[in-house]
Amino acid sequence: MSAEELNKEINRRRTFAIISHPDAGKTTLTEKLLLYGGAIHLAGSVKSRKTQRHAVSDWMEIEKQRGISVTSSVLQFDYNGYRINILDTPGHQDFSEDTYRTLMAVDSAVMIIDVAKGVEAQTKKLFKVCRQRGIPIFTFVNKLDRFGKSPIDLMEEIEQVLGIRAYPMNWPIGIDGNYQGVYNRQKNQVELFSEDGTHGQNVIASEVGSVEDPVFAERIGKENHQALCEDIELLDMAGEQFDDEKVQHGELTPMFFGSAMTNFGVQNFLEEYLRLAPPPAARESSDGIIDPQDEKFSAFIFKIQANMNPAHRDRLSFMRICSGKFTRGMSVYHDRTGKMIKLAQPQQFLAQDRTIIDEAYPGDIVGLFDPGIFGMGDTLCSQGHKFHFPDFPVFPPEQFARVQAKDTMKRKQFVKGITELTQEGAVQLFQQAGAGTESYIIGTVGSLQFEVLEYRLKNEYGVDLLMQMQPYEVARWMENGKEKITPSSLRGADRGMFVYDIKERPVLLVSNEWALGWITDNNPDIKFYPVPPDKKKA
Predict the structure, then answer these.
(1) Which residues is 332 bridged to in the sheet?
(2) Half-sphere exposure of residue 389, counting CA atoms within 13 Å on the CB side?
(3) What Rg, from alpha-carbon coordinates, does the chain have?
(4) Terminal Cα distance for the chain, rounded
């Protein structure tokens, strides 16, 4: 393949994640982008249970029942000559780890803000991750079909709470949270939306015209027209200047107003996003910067998902391609094991619908059939150029429970299920010192993860769990040079629980920082770490 062809494929790729607080409309917007991309002809309104349709991107049974996303799903479609990879991340804070890893695999992010609620807690956390990576952030203010805050107040809030300036690409028409359409600043035109009785299941019809047109002034009403003209003048005089350089470095966010539920402003957002968002970027590695145009293949694994197809009990690892061209059946060097691996059944997705693919390019996300060889963050590269991409940071667990199978006859399925879900990164696994293997200690970032663990073990592995919450909130990995740390060599070990992690490293669980303080003071030779010593804290 010529360098020119590779370059052309790279430049038409857009890989992004959608981040937001739960319930800001993330999954709904994802659906609508697919609707405009022609990937689905009828978008399933997540809320309208009457039609019994669920969101395409929420494929796990528990997600359909709750109406929330608890895993990141991958969606790919074409629009206007672009190849788009969307990573729909879990909105719930208990799954911030999965989201964090997903954000390592994208080139830009779309941040959704609820027009009535503004910037919420989870949005702040996720925004911070994007900020650290310096990736461009596009803002979509959602739910304009409902009563909400004024656009000026929202701009101020974004600036004060997140510390990023916003440049409105369009502006809502209407007063006091009652909106009829949007004004497109680039095209200097008004777009009014027709009534849509289908809950946004179809692409919406809209009327377009100039802001100076007296017919439009009459349609939107004199008061609304006057308010719009004043707002536009204010933005042009006192607002931020558009600066593409700042957008690309994540210092200025282009801001769009719309309603995913009624498709209001969605198509305009998609087209502007594709025009402004960056193609796949170069990445840091142990061997310097890896450019996407480098013809030697490289990728990393950012997500592992067991049982995507319950009938086959399969396990898929998702890789993000960073450089070169991928072809089906190619052999690559697996950095962690030092072995060559053949990539035989590569798949691409629309949630859980998948197709086998023959080739893919930088920016693309490919699912690999995984018999258990891949780990989170593994680097794959060509034999001729060996290196590795940086490790993912780790989240310290904050909640712990002892789990065992209710039925001892199901011990084998229990161990298999716990092991696979740990490899997925859903939970962290510990073994109590001196205890048998009938039970494990599980650590999580949030309590919803326990619910999902219990649910998935029952539904995917046929195991009912006995779960006892433990009174610990702090975990510390311990190191003492070459000396082995044991429960008897640690002073005050009885004030907490002494466990080993999956790599047999000693870890101490304690109930609070005060108890930890006593133990650290009484064991001056031992170093205590909030995450494994070879990892960075997220």
Answers:
(1) 341
(2) 26
(3) 25
(4) 39
Q: Which residues are annotated as a binding site for GTP?
A: 20-27, 88-92, 142-145
Average pLDDT, the chain: 82
More confident residue, 74 or 438: 438
Phi-psi region of 73 (alpha: psi -120 to 50; beta: other; left: phi over 0): beta
Instruction: Tokens for 297, please give them.
Output: 């293949």
Q: How far apart are CA 351 and CA 164, in angstroms?
A: 32
Highest mean pLDDT among 60-74, 147-161, 422-436 belongs to 147-161
Whether 16 has a pLDDT exceeding 90, the answer reads yes
Strands (E) located in 58-164: 73-79, 82-88, 108-114, 137-142
Q: Find out whether 179 and 197 touch, Cβ atoms under 8 Å.
A: no
- Give the separation between CA 284 and CA 391, rounded to whole angstroms: 11
The better pLDDT of the pair 115, 214 is held by: 115
| Residue 353 vs residue 12, higher pLDDT | 12
Residue 376: pLDDT band (50, 70, 90) is confident
Annotated binding residues: 20-27, 88-92, 142-145
Residue type, position 251, single letter: E
Q: What is the arithmetic mean of pLDDT over 331-348?
A: 88
356 versus 487: the higher-pLDDT residue is: 487
Supply φ then ψ for residue 367, to 5 degrees: -90, 130
For the chain, the residue count is 538
> Token pair of 386, please?
């060996």
**Token pair of 117 as six digits:** 């609620």
DSSP 294-309: -SS-EEEEEEEEE-SS
Q: Kindly tell me if the per-residue pLDDT of 62 is higher than 60.
A: no
CB atoms within 10 A of CB 344: 12
Percentages (nearest 5) of helix, strand, coil residues in the chain: 30, 30, 40
Please choose, from the candidates 133, 407, 103, 136, the residue with its C-alpha nearest in 3D space to the C-alpha of residue 273: 136
Least confident range from 179-183, 353-357, 404-408, 428-432: namely: 353-357
CA–CA dist 3, 23 (Å, integer) = 44
pLDDT band at 43 (very low <50, low <70, confident <90, very high): very low
Query: 36-39 long-range contacts, Cβ below 8 Å, gap at least 24?
Result: 36/79, 36/203, 36/266, 36/267, 36/270, 37/77, 37/78, 37/79, 37/84, 37/270, 38/77, 38/78, 38/79, 39/75, 39/77, 39/350
Alpha carbons 381 and 283: distance in angstroms, whole number: 13
